[in-house]
Amino acid sequence: MFQDPPHSRTDIVLGEIDDLQPTVNFASQAEVPAAEQWGPRIIPDYQLFFLLSGEAEISIGQEQYKLAAGDIALYGPHCPHRIITRTGVIFIGIHFAYRHLSPEPVHPAFSIEACSEERLEASIRPSYKLELPNKELLELPPFFTIPGIKPILMRIVQEYLNEQPGYRIVLRSLMTELITTLVRNQLSKRPRSPDQDKIDPALQAINKEPEKNWTVNELAALCGYHVNYFSSLFRKCTGDSPKQYLINERIRKAKYYLLSGEKMELIAERLGYASVHYFSRNFKEETGLTPTEFKQ
Q1: All domains of the chain, ordered by start, with CATH?
Q2: pLDDT of residue 4
Q3: What is the DSSP string of 176-236?
Q4: Please, which pLDDT band fits residue 7 given cuts at 50, 70 and 90?
């Protein structure tokens, strides 16, 4: 049972999703008996607590939630919390930072602080938000369930424990995938915007024929709107101009073709570029890498 206090929250913006540089500080899988307790405490970073089996109860500030197998709790350094196992449980715990220049793990153990029951009960969980490409702020849930997320969590634990060459970068990649999966899961639950329906014909045309040099007038005509209104609506829904969206779609497909082993000449022709040189230049402008560097 989830209890949401009727008090105002503090919004904490974690940054733009495309600029995240997550660092995994600690990851483990453990089995503990009933009546095990962590806290009340405050951690120095963020933590995902994923219950593989059993039942537990978690308090984050004034909010309480009963966790069952498959449930995940997400909390950060700004609010006291406490976890109590109601049965024997198996869980995965991952401490991480959303943005840190270095991928080197910083173990949180020495910076965890105990706090009083009074402080736990008086505190209010902040609202953690990520900025999407269209500048919208998406709130991350404190408790959630995502089918199929377990393999990503298991891989994070394995990479952290094995410490094979390059494991820090692999952990950053896996954590980015995990956060992106959470964001997409949240977006999939929202009702579809009526504005999105209005530009669907243009989106479908670009996705179907990215090699075509679509003009804004052509795309606006497909949707039945004046070009100025269409352009404003398109940017509102996607965060990009129609021209930039077309470029993004070409680059996305180019990445797929490159990793599939196709030759650059064929990719450039397939995506409507006048030459391999122009394709390579555009690819580097958008990704920071040449096609060859990306493939390697």
Answers
A1: 11-188 (2.60.120.10), 194-295 (1.10.10.60)
A2: 46
A3: HHHHHHHHHHHHHTSPPPHHHHHHHHHHHHHHH-TTS---HHHHHHHHTS-HHHHHHHHHH
A4: low
